[in-house]
Every structure is written in structure tokens, then in C-alpha cells.
């Protein structure tokens, strides 16, 4: 922590101060978080235990579910506790850690989505060379690069934030520590720092979104040369990926590509991509994927049979 900081803790205003609304939010957040954990952990266990899901696509889906679980866990448990407590305070160090983990797993999800798009491109446009290009070793290296890149991104955010002095006030008009509301509390000119932060997060979100959309346009265009059955299967997978990309990137681009201004709707939009998207991802990938559903059914059947034999 910088020596010129007088602030040792922050007060989170949350979504509301009304006791009755807090109880409703408690049920809402708890339901969504448990659903996120259940859905993503089910995908993780299914992929790890099923031999049928050994392709690179499911290798990346495993890490997408893992990043979703960790991404939600950086925010949801704290939100649930804050709906019960009267004084929602968070220490300076905890706030910085939350900013780091939130951006780390959010950036990791972006990179994993890019890898999934690259996997689909190779599978559909270069089918004869698919197993050579997307070997397990290559996939492992790509995921490792995604982890390192996410770490570099988050450390950059943290170093820029810690370069600012915080001498009061210490009230954050949000339900978690994020860069924009945090910058408003710095007792210094934050124009340059904000520009660097926006160019970092905003550039990653915007460039990645454009790359993903462009890649899926190429993929969908190349499906014209495939058989009806192959086109239907590939189209189903790609549409699932496109839905996830739009749901995740839409709110992120809105939040992180603007100057240091906040709107009343920001917190509601943040709820969507911090709480809603991690829950929707496993639903989209399981409901639209026959292989995952079949693997889950076999996993459940084995569990029931093993329990009956005891």
C-alpha cells in the first residue's frame, strides 16, 4: 500500500440500503451463486470423467467453466454477506485483491473464448489438419499463455491504481471494488491514469469482441460447403459460442470503454455480467450441446448404479 494513503478501508454502498430489498437481494444472489457453482462444477466434473469429451473444444470449455466459477466467487460471496451486515466495509488490501482477481478471471474468460473460437475455426475450416494444429500440447500452451496474459493485465491495473493517493472520502457507490468507482475517490488528477486503464480494459474487450465476431463470420460463411448434418452440428456449437460472447462482452464494453463517468444503470449492468453470465454459460453450453448432455446422463447413471450396489 502506498505510504501517502490515509484510507485504510472503504464503505460499499451496495445496490440498496433498504432492509426489505436487501433480503430479496440475499435470496436472489444466493440462488444465482449456487446455480453458478452447481452448473459450472457439473461441467468441470463431466469433462474430467468422460472419455467422450476429450476434444480440444471441451478442454477449453473446462477452463471456461473454471474461470466462470472463480470469476463469480470473487464477487458473489461478498455480496451475499453484505446483504446481511449493516456496515459494509472492506479493507484497502481486500479491495485491491478483489480488483485483481475480478479482472484476472474476467480477462482469462475473454482469452478462453478467443481460444474456443480459434478451435472452431480450425475444426471447420481446416478439418484435415485439426488434430495436428490443435494437439493437447498446443492447447495446454495456449491456456498457459492465457493465464500469463490475464495476470499481466490485472497487475497493470493494480499498479496504476496504487500509484494514486487515497486520502478520503472512502465511500464506494458500488457493491464491489472496481476501477471506475475507485478512481473517483482518489485525491489527485486521474485523467491520465483513467485513460491508461480504459485503454487497457477497453481495448482488450473491444478488440477481442471484434476478433471473435469476425472469426465467427468466417466460420459461418465456410459452413456453406459442408453437408447438411455437419452444418447443423457446427452451427449449433457456433451459435452457443456467439450467444456467450455477446452476453459477456456487451456489458463489459459499455462499462470499460467510457471515460471516468458513472451512470445509475452501471450497477445493474454489472450485476448482469458478474452474476448472470457465469450462470447462463453452463446452461447455454449444456442445453445446446448433445454430447455434454449425454455425458452428464452417463455420469448420473453411473452414480445411481454405484449407490444402488452399496
UniProtKB/TrEMBL annotation:
GO CC annotations on file: plasma membrane
Residue ranges of the TM segments: 24-45, 57-76, 96-118, 138-160, 201-223, 235-256, 268-287
Gene3D superfamilies xrefs: Rhodopsin 7-helix transmembrane proteins
UniProt GO molecular function: G protein-coupled receptor activity; olfactory receptor activity
Assigned keywords, A-Z: Cell membrane, G-protein coupled receptor, Membrane, Olfaction, Receptor, Sensory transduction, Transducer, Transmembrane, Transmembrane helix
Entry-linked Pfam families: 7tm_4 (PF13853)
Top-level lineage group: Eukaryota
Subcellular location: Cell membrane
Residue intervals of the G-protein coupled receptors family 1 profile domain: 39-285
Protein name: Olfactory receptor
Originating species: Chrysochloris asiatica
GN (gene name): LOC102830470
Amino acid at each position: 500500500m502506498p505510504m501517502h494513503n490515509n484510507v485504510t478501508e472503504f464503505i460499499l454502498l451496495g445496490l440498496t440500503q433498504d432492509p426489505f430489498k436487501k433480503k430479496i437481494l440475499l435470496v436472489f444472489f444466493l440462488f444465482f451463486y449456487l446455480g453458478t457453482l452447481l452448473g459450472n462444477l457439473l461441467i468441470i466434473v463431466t469433462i474430467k470423467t468422460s472419455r467422450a469429451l476429450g476434444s480440444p473444444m471441451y478442454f477449453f470449455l473446462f477452463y471456461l467453466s473454471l474461470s466462470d466459477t472463480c470469476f463469480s466467487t470473487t464477487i458473489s460471496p461478498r455480496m451475499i454477506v453484505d446483504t446481511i451486515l449493516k456496515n459494509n466495509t472492506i479493507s484497502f488490501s481486500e479491495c485491491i485483491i478483489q480488483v485483481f482477481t475480478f479482472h484476472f478471471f474476467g480477462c482469462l474468460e475473454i482469452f478462453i473464448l478467443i481460444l474456443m473460437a480459434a478451435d472452431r475455426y480450425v475444426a471447420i475450416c481446416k478439418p484435415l489438419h485439426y488434430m495436428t494444429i490443435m494437439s493437447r500440447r498446443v492447447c495446454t500452451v495456449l491456456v498457459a499463455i492465457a493465464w500469463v496474459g490475464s495476470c499481466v493485465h490485472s497487475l497493470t491495473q493494480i499498479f496504476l491504481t496504487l500509484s494514486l493517493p487515497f486520502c478520503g472520502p472512502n465511500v464506494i457507490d458500488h457493491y464491489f471494488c472496481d476501477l471506475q468507482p475507485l478512481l473517483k475517490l482518489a485525491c489527485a488528477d486521474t485523467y491520465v491514469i483513467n485513460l491508461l486503464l480504459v485503454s487497457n480494459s477497453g481495448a482488450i474487450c473491444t478488440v477481442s469482441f471484434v476478433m471473435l465476431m469476425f472469426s465467427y463470420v468466417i466460420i459461418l460463411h465456410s459452413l456453406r460447403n459442408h453437408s447438411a448434418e455437419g452444418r447443423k452440428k457446427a452451427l449449433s456449437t457456433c451459435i452457443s459460442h456467439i450467444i456467450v460472447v455477446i452476453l459477456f462482452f456487451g456489458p463489459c464494453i459499455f462499462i470499460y470503454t467510457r471515460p471516468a463517468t458513472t451512470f445509475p444503470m452501471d450497477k445493474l449492468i454489472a450485476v448482469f455480467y458478474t452474476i448472470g453470465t457465469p450462470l447462463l454459460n453452463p446452461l447455454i453450453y449444456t442445453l445446446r450441446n448433445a454430447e455434454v448432455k449425454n455425458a452428464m446422463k452417463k455420469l448420473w447413471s453411473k452414480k445411481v448404479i454405484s449407490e444402488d450396489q452399496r
